[in-house]
């Protein structure tokens, strides 16, 4: 089973550690594309319009400065760099030893700069949203669509893909139809007074808790239906959608975060 997570916009900046070495990252076939993105982002960060291109406000100049130093900045494990609601709820650092081992083997994170990273990959803190267009390179999502296919199918192997990415990062790579029977996407619906809707905070926090529960439990479902059964067993209300060439959607219905 491969659990595919979105990145977080907010990150914990490493204070010490070796600088980035692309050769040490997982999915080495992505190294040329990673270098392209890094070069384009560092070059952009030296321009006066960098904040505007990156969609940053006037008070976020420090993020542009950090991007300019990406090749020399300290690095840390990706599972310590990514933060935010989903990662706080997941609580990777407080997993049991068995849960941490499963996280290392089963988690992957979509990244605008690195394409795909594993929890143990050492990366610097960066700021690059998935909907940015980099001068001289084009849309970040478009570049990764050209390069992620082989890395993703290799990482997935013969198991189930549990795709928890948001829409922006889902555009980086879409599973081909032949993988459809082995793809489960998860949507979290907040139900109040009989009305259901997607609420960002509930969505992110619940996904984090789902991943944590699966890692601690050790469940390794091989089909979307078995995943739904496991989530019900672990305490969630789950509605299983129909199988399509794009995969099967699981709706997890919550009433409180």
Automatic annotation (TrEMBL):
| InterPro entries in UniProt | YaaA (IPR005583)
Any one cellular component term from GO for this entry?
cytosol
Give the Pfam families listed for this entry. Answer: H2O2_YaaD
| Superkingdom field | Bacteria
What are the recorded Gene Ontology BP terms? response to hydroperoxide
What is the protein name stated in its UniProt record? Peroxide stress protein YaaA
Q: Which gene encodes it?
A: yaaA
């Amino acid at each position: 089973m491969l659990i595919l997570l979105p990145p977080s916009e907010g990150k914990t900046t490493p204070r010490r550690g070796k600088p980035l070495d692309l050769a040490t990252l997982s999915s080495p076939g992505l190294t040329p594309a990673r270098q392209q993105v890094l070069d384009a982002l560092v070059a952009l960060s030296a321009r006066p319009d960098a904040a505007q291109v990156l969609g940053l406000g006037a008070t976020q100049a420090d993020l542009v400065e950090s991007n300019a130093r990406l090749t020399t900045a300290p690095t840390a494990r990706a599972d310590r760099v990514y933060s935010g609601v989903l990662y706080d709820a997941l609580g990777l650092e407080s997993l049991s030893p068995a849960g941490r081992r499963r996280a290392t083997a089963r988690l992957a994170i979509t990244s605008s700069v690195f394409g795909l990273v594993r929890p143990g990959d050492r990366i610097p803190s960066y700021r690059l949203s998935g909907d940015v267009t980099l001068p001289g390179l084009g849309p970040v999502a478009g570049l990764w669509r050209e390069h992620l296919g082989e890395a993703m199918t290799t990482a997935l192997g013969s198991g189930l893909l549990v795709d928890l990415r948001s829409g922006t990062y889902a555009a980086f790579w879409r599973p081909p139809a032949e993988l459809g029977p082995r793809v489960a996407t998860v949507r979290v619906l907040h139900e109040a007074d009989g009305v259901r809707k997607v609420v960002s905070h509930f969505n992110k926090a619940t996904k984090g808790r789902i991943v944590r529960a699966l890692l601690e439990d050790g469940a390794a479902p091989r089909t979307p239906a078995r995943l739904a059964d496991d989530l019900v067993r672990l305490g969630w209300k789950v509605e299983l959608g129909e199988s399509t060439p794009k995969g099967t959607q699981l709706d997890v219905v919550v009433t409180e975060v």
